[in-house]
Every structure is written in structure tokens, then in C-alpha cells.
């Protein structure tokens, strides 16, 4: 085949609009966030606590509701993390390396994934680090990052999770709550 | 082995609504549970699961992954997913069961159309180089098909209205339907055009819904229910995509799929067909070779509930339920994929 | 009794960052036509098609197989579209094999593709949001956990990255041709998802793969050796749940044991001659070796370090260069199955493993929760 001149693709931006209400479980989660609280649901079958509540327990497929709501403290530890060098894709706002961490909340059985860590340089972030949420001032909070599509972006209500200064959790405990 | 060895033994639908407060997986969980409870089977007994859904309805890449949580996939399960209506997930599960090593398969279909705008999403289903940039929305596409049908002389606008009136009347007996009522054909014809020659009532409703089916093989089916709905034939065929490359007034792929599924044009107790727009019912009835007087869409059909990605599966469910209840001994179900009836599936069900 | 299934033709595209010389149509036809030619048959000989690709949001098209029907000679035939995230290329092959084994069809064309340059896969992998983790960011903490669990030295990842790119130099279809690749170069490349570096990560590719599957009678019509499908299996598990181990994934263990059982394999390390495993980030090679019980706990990285998984070693992994060298996401799983088939057909050219008679193919996807695996042999039993 003879060499072809390089072709520049034409861009056709496809823009689709999705509008929906948060599911009841996420609605309750978002309302509580605005008042500075973390709530989830406890499964009546196995007693596991999920934050945010999912409206069901995936381990038993038992449906859960407001009757199963529990509050948990905003403390926990880093069970997994990475430092991401941002790729510039459409909509990307990050330009500098940033940390995404999995936070094992003390009162929950699931893990909060892709959370920001503040108050510690990147090279000091490590598994086992005990942290607590650093909340934004109440009047500045928004829950736009909460979505039915798996977004539990808490950036609108907290700056991130910051170290508490307590001793680290042991590696084994981190390993069982990695994701 | 005999392909006719596989039957539908349980079904469930989440009633279609215009806008559900629940997420897709929250619709699926009680639906799947209901189907399994009907036959006293636990999720752990299922040998293979297949789901049908469309990421673009949920509005995100990998959206289908969350639906796995309706299956309680722990410990790990054998499952798969098609970016198609649940009717094709049923097809895949039916194929899988023929291997003979497992007895039970679970099929799911789900979709919420409420969060998005059909006129924005579905043009993206067309050829991205030549058609999508024209912004051809699904209603206009159906309108072009309806116009071609009128000009062919094969149908009239009154025929369209009669399909709508009959469908809505039938849906009065269907708790899962979204639109139902007693409407007068002349009153329908007096309504203004929405996208000529289609009137608003010629369009399906926008629906959120989910459905589930359990398939069983051979003796297992006989052990589970008194009257399994045996799948006597199941086939699907696709037509060319470009609307200019086929006769929109007929559905060649439906005719072929019906023949390959073993439907000979004989009497049926009911036919549940995926006529998404009213004119399509006339096209499909002819293409299937349904005898005059066949009861079509006793459920009300897609004109009364259109939970996209389970609409086709619901047709199979409605056709199967009538056999399992003893009300019918031979029914046919049809599902469609793509626009203007591009891709079609036919399922022939028998009671014995 | 199920019919036996065999591969009698494969095809793939020249994988590249941007295939500006073809549209999506041209891309899939290139692979499909090559598969048909290899199978010595024509479009009209195909009874059914199974298409697979990754999320349609990557290219901004809904169900693109619908418009590809025309280009793939599908009119009048059944067409299925499989979508199981990254494992899709593998599950596409497996769905196609079921159509043969059930006796429903005699010749099925499986096609999987991705034209990432005509979309925005990074956006898609980041959930369409700013600050997303992408695939690498999701897997990085798990690779870190493997490194800590196993005590593996840091150079193992660099060795895998180097090995696969050197293998790719022998694969005419591979995207990355890094003739000057070295462990030093990998080590010095920038960090992308700590601890994973740029040169330890897969490229973004445009590419497609295709395979023609047939039954035993069909193999007799072909003049070339078939690759017999001895075993296939899929397994999925919840991606997120309390107590999940995303490093040694149970679904991956179960899937592997299913294919080994079907193939009568008691000792995979000894009885499998070559493996094409989905390794998009270097550390996944030792992780899958252990995750599929080819190596014992903590032994996967030793297989890498000792050169066992090199193309001339006792258990070559990814002689094609693997996903680290070409990653059109929707196609990558099928490419693993195609490459494994080519090995037992003796048709892998410069990256042929001598005497390969039993080959393992594996694809995974989602949050390392979907698995599709297959075993090919050069003989029917």
C-alpha cells in the first residue's frame, strides 16, 4: 500500500444529558453529608454496614431502607492508595499528581474508594495511616459529586481525609480492606 | 441433544413506570428474587446467568457492572452480558444450556429510559459517519418507515390507530403495563401529528423497568413446574443497517428468523411482538405470517410499556406466562434491536 | 453430546495508536478478511457473527455492531454483541464456541475491536469525570499489595515490561516496537500510577481481531492445522464487597480450575506449553501466574526473574508481546485467544514457541472481576 498522507480526524462532540433523582439511599447519604454526618445502612440479614447505603446488601441481596440507617464516625484508615499522574482527557481538571486512597471507615464494612488525602505530602502517604474527614464549612458544602452512577465523590463536602496522628493500623488489617 | 429440551419455568417483571426512584440494580434485585421464589430455587443453584442492558441508558461506561449485584455473584458465578435486549441474553443462555452440563440458567433484562432524552441517545445508534451526524432521531426514523408503509398501500392511519386502541384496551388487564385505557379510534385520529404520520399515541411510552426469566433443561423443568413453556424454536437475524438498503415496509429478518425458529404460519394462541411504534405491528404481523385473527399483544405490548432492554424479554415472558398458566398451548414472541426493525428475534413456545 | 469446536482461521490488524488509514469499518474488515482468508472461506460461508468490544462510551456510538452489520456480511445472519468489560474479547470467543458446540451453527465469525483514536478511552475509564483513577489507578494499589505480600523485588515489573516489548518485535501486528527497550529505560520512565511507571503500562491502540470457528466436520475442509478448543470457562464476582481480595481473585482461581478440569490438566505449569495472559500492567504477569495456580503463592515473580516466562523459557508468557504491546481494549481478550490458537497451529511465525501443543488464553475485566479463559490443543483429545 502506498504511504497515505496523515489524516486529522474530525471531532464530533457527543453531548448527552442525564437528569435523575438520587436513589432514596443516596438521597439520605447526601442529606446527611450536608450536615456533616456519614450515614449508611446495616443489612438485617448479615449485619454488615455499607456507607453509603446501597438500598440492598450485595452479599445477601436483602433490600434495605431508611429503617436500616446507621451513622458512622468519619474516622478510619488508608487501606490502599496510589499517586496518579493525570492524563489530560476531556473534562480532566487535574494537572498535578494527586493521591487516590481507599478509606476503611471504622464503622463500616465496605471501603470508601478514590478519596483524597490532605495534610500530608504524597511521599508520606502509606497504608495503615489513620485519618479523619476534614469537612468544608457547612455553608460551602455541596453534594454534586454524589451520583447514582457510582460516584461517591465527597470533594464537595470534605477537603479530604487527614491524618489523626494515631498509631498506624497493622498491614494485615489494611490487606483485608484493600478495596 | 434436542433443542426443544429447554423451557421457561419462571418469570418476573418489575412494573413499568415513567420514572422510577430506584436504580436499575434496585429494580433487578426484587425481580430476580421473585422469579426464583416462584420455583423455590436459590441463586446458588443457577448454572449460568446472562444479562441484557445498555450502558447509554444508565449513562456511563461500565454501567452494566452494577447490575451484577442483583445476582449475588459471590461466590463467583458463570455469567455473561450482552449490550442488547434481555431477549438476546435469553438466547445466549439457551445456547449455553444445550451443552448439557448445567440445568438452570437465569436471564435478566433491565433499563431506565427516564434519565435520558431518547432523541439525544438513539441517534448515536446509527452509522457514526453517515447517519448519526444527521441527527436522525428514533421517532423520525419510525415516521419514515410509517410513511413508506402508507404509500405502499399496505396500511392506513386508521390501522395504526386501531393497533393503539386495541393495545391499550388489552393492557387494562396487565398490572405491569404503564399505559392503559379505553380509547376511541376516531378520537385518536383527531389528534394532531407528532412527527407525521405518527401521532403521539403511535409512539411507545418512556419507561423504566426490568424483567427476569429462569430457563430449565429437560427433567429439571418438569420437576419445577407443572406446565413448562418449552422453547420449540429460537432464532434471530439482522438486516442491513442503512435504511436505504432495505424495504422498510417489510421485515425480511423477521420472516427469516420465524422460519428458522420453526414457525410455519399456523395457529397461535397469542403472539407477543415488539412493535415499538404502531405501524410496526402491521409490518411484523405480515412478516411473521400470522394468521388473521391471531391475538396480538394481549399484554398491551410495547405501546403500553417500553422498558428498553427488557421490552423483548417481556414479550417472551408474556408469551410464556400464558402457557404456564394453562391459558395457551402455543405462543410466539418477537424481540427487536436497533431502529426500524433492523434486528429481530423470534421465539416459538409450546406447552407440551 | 456437544460438538467439538476448533479455530481454522484468525486475523488481526496492524495495531497502532492511530489507524488514520481506515475507518472503524475498515479496521474490523481488515481483521475479519484476514481470518476468512486464513480459514480459506468467504463471507458467505459464515453462519453467524459474535461481536465484542469494550464500553460503547469509548467511541461515542451506541451498539456500533448494528452499523457494522453491513460491512461484516451479516445481513440475514444472527449477530450477537457481547459486552463484559476488558474480558470481552475472551467471552466473545467463548460465546462463539458455544454456537458451534451446541450444533446450532457450523461456521461462526468472532470479531472484537476498539478504535480508541476515534473516541476517548481515558475519559471512559475515568468514569467520565475529572480526577478519575483510570484502569491503572484502580489496579495500582493491588499491585502494590502483591509486591508487599510476595516480597518481590522492584525490578520484576520492569523485567516483564521489557520481555513483552522484546517479544513484540517478533510480532508484525504489535503496536509498540520499542527496539531499544531495556530494564533501565523502564525504571527511568515517569511514574503514572505509583508504583507503576509509564513503560510498565499498556499503550492505547486501534485494533481488531477475528477468528473463524467451526466444528469437526469443518476442520476437514481446511488445509491448515486447526486449534482445537479443549476447554472454556467464564467466571464473575462482585467487584466491591467487604472482605474481597482483589489481588488473588477467587473468580480467577475458579475459572482456571474449571478449564484445567475440562482439559484434564492436573499440573498447569508442566502441562501447558505457552500462555497468553491479559497483562496490561507489568505486575499482572506474576499476579496471574499465582492467581491461576500456575505458580504457588509468592512464586510468580520468581518465574519472571528466572527467565521462565521469557519466549525461550520453560513457561513462555505472552510471546506475542501481549497487552503491554498492543491494547485495543475490546479486542485484547480475543487477541489472547487468537495468539494461543496460533501457537498450537504452529502459525505464530517469529514468535512461535517451539513444540507448543497446549496453550492457555486468559482475559480479565472490570475491577478484575470478570474472567474468560480457554485452552487450545493441536489435537482433538
Largest sheet of chain A: 5 strands, antiparallel
Summing up helix and strand content along with how strands pair, one would put the structural category of chain C as alpha/beta
Subunit arrangement of the protein: heterotrimer
Q: What is the average of the pLDDT values of chain C? A: 96
Strand order of the largest sheet of chain C: 3-2-4-7-1-8-11-10-9
- Kindly state the percentage of residues in helix of chain C: 25-40%
Number of separate strands of chain A: 12
Let me know the average pLDDT of chain A: 93
How would a textbook summarize the main sheet of chain C? 9 strands, mixed
Order of helices and strands of chain A: HEEEEEEEEEEEEH
Kindly describe this structure.
The complex is a heterotrimer of chains A (179), B (352) and C (381). With 179 residues, chain A is mostly beta strands. Chain A has helices at residues 24-34, 171-175, and strands spanning 38-42, 49-50, 56-57, 62-63, 69-72, 75-84, 98-105, 112-115, 130-135, 146-147, 151-152, 158-163. In chain A, the strands form 4 sheets. In chain A, strands 8-7-6-9-12 form a 5-stranded antiparallel β-sheet. In chain A, a hairpin with a 6-residue loop joins strand 1 (38-42) and strand 2. Chain A is globular and about 65 Å long. The model of chain A has no long low-confidence stretch (mean pLDDT 93). Chain B is built from 12 helices and 11 strands. Chain B is 32% helix and 21% strand. Chain B has 2 domains: 3-117 and 206-230, Peroxisomal Thiolase, Chain A, domain 1, CATH 3.40.47; 124-204 and 233-350, Thiolase/Chalcone synthase (Peroxisomal Thiolase, Chain A, domain 1). Chain B is globular, with a radius of gyration of 19 Å. With 381 residues, chain C is of the alpha/beta class. Chain C contains 14 helices and 11 strands. The interface between B and C is large, with 58 and 59 residues.
List keywords for this structure.
heterotrimer; B: 352 residues; alpha/beta; Peroxisomal Thiolase, Chain A, domain 1; 2 domains; 12 helices; 11 strands; 21% strand; globular; C: 381 residues; nine-stranded mixed beta sheet; two-stranded antiparallel ribbon; 35% helix
Please render the helix and strand layout as text:
The complex is a heterotrimer of chains A (179), B (352) and C (381).
Chain A: H1 24-34, E1 38-42, E2 49-50, E3 56-57, E4 62-63, E5 69-72, E6 75-84, E7 98-105, E8 112-115, E9 130-135, E10 146-147, E11 151-152, E12 158-163, H2 171-175
Antiparallel strand pairs in A: 1-2, 1-5, 3-4, 6-7, 6-9, 7-8, 9-12, 10-11
Chain B: E1 6-17, H1 24-38, E2 48-52, H2 55-58, H3 64-67, E3 79-82, H4 86-97, E4 104-112, H5 118-121, H6 138-152, H7 157-170, H8 185-189, E5 193-195, E6 198-199, E7 208-217, H9 218-224, E8 229-238, H10 252-260, E9 270-272, H11 278-288, H12 311-324, E10 330-337, E11 343-350
Chain C: E1 5-12, H1 24-38, E2 48-52, H2 65-71, E3 79-82, H3 88-101, E4 107-115, H4 121-125, H5 134-150, H6 155-168, H7 183-188, E5 191-193, E6 196-197, E7 206-215, H8 216-219, E8 227-236, H9 250-263, H10 268-271, E9 274-276, H11 284-291, H12 300-305, H13 322-325, H14 329-345, E10 358-365, E11 370-377
Parallel strand pairs in C: 2-3, 2-4, 9-10
Antiparallel strand pairs in C: 1-7, 1-8, 4-7, 5-6, 8-11, 10-11
Helix pairs in contact in C: 3-14
Amino acid at each position: 500500500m502506498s504511504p497515505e498522507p496523515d489524516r486529522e480526524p474530525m471531532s464530533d462532540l457527543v453531548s448527552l444529558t442525564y437528569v435523575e433523582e438520587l436513589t432514596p439511599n443516596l438521597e439520605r447519604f447526601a442529606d446527611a453529608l450536608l450536615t456533616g454526618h456519614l450515614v449508611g445502612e446495616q443489612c438485617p440479614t448479615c449485619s454488615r454496614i455499607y456507607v453509603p447505603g446501597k438500598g440492598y446488601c450485595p452479599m445477601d441481596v436483602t433490600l434495605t431502607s431508611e429503617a436500616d440507617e446507621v451513622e458512622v464516625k468519619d474516622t478510619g484508615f488508608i487501606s490502599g492508595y496510589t499517586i496518579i499522574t493525570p492524563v489530560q482527557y476531556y473534562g480532566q481538571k487535574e494537572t498535578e499528581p494527586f493521591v487516590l486512597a481507599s478509606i476503611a471507615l471504622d464503622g463500616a464494612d465496605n471501603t470508601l474508594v478514590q478519596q483524597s488525602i490532605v495534610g500530608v505530602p504524597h511521599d508520606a502517604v502509606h497504608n495503615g495511616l489513620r485519618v479523619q474527614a476534614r469537612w468544608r464549612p457547612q455553608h460551602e458544602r455541596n453534594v454534586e459529586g454524589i451520583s447514582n452512577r457510582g460516584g461517591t465523590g465527597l470533594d464537595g463536602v470534605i477537603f479530604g481525609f487527614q491524618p489523626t496522628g494515631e498509631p498506624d493500623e497493622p498491614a494485615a488489617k489494611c490487606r483485608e480492606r484493600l478495596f | 441433544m434436542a433443542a426443544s429440551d429447554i423451557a421457561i419455568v419462571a418469570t418476573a417483571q418489575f412494573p413499568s413506570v415513567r420514572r422510577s426512584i430506584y436504580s436499575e440494580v434496585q429494580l433487578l434485585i426484587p425481580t430476580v428474587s421473585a422469579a426464583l421464589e416462584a420455583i423455590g430455587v436459590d441463586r446458588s443453584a443457577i448454572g449460568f446467568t446472562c444479562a441484557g442492558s445498555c450502558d447509554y441508558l444508565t449513562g456511563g461506561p461500565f454501567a452494566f457492572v452494577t447490575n451484577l449485584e442483583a445476582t449475588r455473584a459471590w461466590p463467583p458465578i458463570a455469567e455473561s452480558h450482552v449490550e442488547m435486549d434481555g431477549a438476546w441474553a435469553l438466547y445466549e443462555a439457551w445456547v449455553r444450556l444445550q451443552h448439557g452440563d448445567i440445568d438452570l440458567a437465569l436471564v435478566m433484562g433491565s433499563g431506565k429510559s427516564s434519565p435520558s432524552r431518547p432523541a439525544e441517545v438513539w441517534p448515536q445508534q446509527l452509522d457514526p459517519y453517515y447517519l448519526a451526524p444527521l441527527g436522525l432521531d428514533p421517532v423520525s426514523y419510525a415516521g419514515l418507515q410509517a410513511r413508506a408503509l402508507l404509500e405502499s398501500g399496505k396500511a392506513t392511519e386508521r390501522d395504526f390507530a386501531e393497533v393503539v386502541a386495541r393495545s391499550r384496551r388489552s393492557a387494562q388487564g396487565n398490572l405491569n403495563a404503564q399505559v392503559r385505557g379505553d380509547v376511541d379510534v376516531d378520537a385518536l385520529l383527531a389528534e394532531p401529528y407528532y412527527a407525521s404520520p405518527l401521532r403521539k399515541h403511535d409512539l411507545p411510552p418512556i419507561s423504566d423497568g426490568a424483567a427476569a426469566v429462569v430457563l430449565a433443561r429437560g427433567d429439571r423443568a418438569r420437576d419445577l413446574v407443572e406446565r413448562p413453556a418449552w422453547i420449540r424454536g429460537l432464532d434471530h437475524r439482522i438486516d442491513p443497517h442503512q435504511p436505504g438498503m432495505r424495504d422498510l415496509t417489510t421485515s425480511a429478518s423477521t420472516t427469516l428468523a420465524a422460519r428458522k425458529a420453526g414457525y410455519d404460519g399456523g395457529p397461535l394462541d397469542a403472539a407477543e411482538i415488539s412493535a415499538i411504534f404502531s405501524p410496526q405491528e402491521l409490518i411484523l404481523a405480515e412478516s411473521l405470517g400470522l394468521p388473521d385473527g391471531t391475538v396480538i399483544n394481549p399484554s398491551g405490548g410495547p405501546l403500553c410499556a417500553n422498558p428498553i432492554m427488557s421490552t423483548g424479554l417481556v414479550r417472551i415472558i408474556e408469551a410464556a406466562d400464558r402457557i404456564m398458566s394453562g391459558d395457551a398451548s402455543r405462543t410466539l414472541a418477537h424481540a427487536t434491536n436497533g431502529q426500524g426493525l433492523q434486528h429481530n428475534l423470534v421465539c416459538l413456545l409450546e406447552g407440551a | 453430546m456437544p460438538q467439538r469446536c476448533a479455530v481454522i482461521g484468525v486475523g488481526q490488524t496492524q495495531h497502532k495508536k492511530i489507524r488514520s488509514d481506515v475507518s472503524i469499518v475498515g479496521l474490523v474488515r481488515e481483521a475479519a478478511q484476514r481470518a476468512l482468508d486464513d480459514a480459506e472461506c468467504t463471507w458467505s460461508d459464515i453462519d453467524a457473527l459474535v461481536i465484542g468490544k469494550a464500553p460503547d462510551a469509548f467511541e461515542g456510538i451506541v451498539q456500533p455492531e448494528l452499523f457494522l452489520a453491513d460491512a461484516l456480511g451479516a445481513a440475514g445472519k444472527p449477530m450477537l454483541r457481547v459486552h463484559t468489560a476488558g474480558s470481552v474479547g475472551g467471552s466473545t470467543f467463548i460465546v462463539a464456541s458455544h454456537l458451534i458446540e451446541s450444533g446450532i451453527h457450523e461456521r461462526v465469525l468472532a470479531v472484537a475491536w476498539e478504535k480508541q483514536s476515534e473516541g476517548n478511552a481515558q475519559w471512559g475509564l475515568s468514569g467520565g469525570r475529572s480526577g478519575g483513577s483510570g484502569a491503572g489507578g484502580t489496579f495500582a494499589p493491588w499491585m502494590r499489595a502483591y509486591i508487599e505480600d510476595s516480597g518481590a523485588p522492584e525490578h520484576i515489573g520492569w523485567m516483564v515490561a521489557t520481555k513483552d516489548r522484546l517479544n513484540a518485535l517478533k510480532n508484525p501486528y504489535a503496536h509498540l516496537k520499542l527496539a531499544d527497550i531495556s530494564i533501565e529505560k523502564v525504571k527511568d520512565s515517569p511514574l503514572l500510577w505509583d508504583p507503576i511507571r509509564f513503560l510498565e503500562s499498556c499503550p492505547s491502540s486501534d485494533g481488531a481481531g477475528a477468528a473463524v470457528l467451526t466444528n469437526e466436520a469443518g476442520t476437514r475442509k481446511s488445509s491448515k492445522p486447526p486449534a482445537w478448543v479443549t476447554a472454556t470457562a467464564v467466571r464473575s464476582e462482585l467487584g466491591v464487597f467487604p472482605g474481597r481480595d482483589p489481588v488473588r481473585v477467587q473468580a480467577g482461581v475458579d475459572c482456571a480450575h474449571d478449564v484445567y478440569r475440562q482439559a484434564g490438566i492436573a499440573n498447569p505449569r508442566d502441562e501447558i506449553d505457552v500462555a497468553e495472559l491479559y497483562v496490561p500492567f507489568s505486575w499482572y504477569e506474576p499476579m496471574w501466574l499465582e492467581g491461576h495456580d500456575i505458580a504457588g503463592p509468592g512464586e510468580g515473580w520468581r518465574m519472571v526473574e528466572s527467565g521462565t516466562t521469557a519466549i525461550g523459557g520453560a513457561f513462555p508468557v505472552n510471546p506475542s508481546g501481549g497487552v503491554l504491546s498492543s491494547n485495543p481494549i475490546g479486542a485484547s481478550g480475543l487477541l489472547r485467544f487468537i495468539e494461543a490458537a496460533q501457537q498450537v497451529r504452529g502459525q505464530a511465525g517469529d514468535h512461535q514457541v517451539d513444540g507448543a501443543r497446549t496453550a492457555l488464553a486468559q482475559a480479565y475485566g472490570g475491577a478484575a472481576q470478570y474472567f474468560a479463559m480457554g485452552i487450545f490443543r493441536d489435537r482433538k483429545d
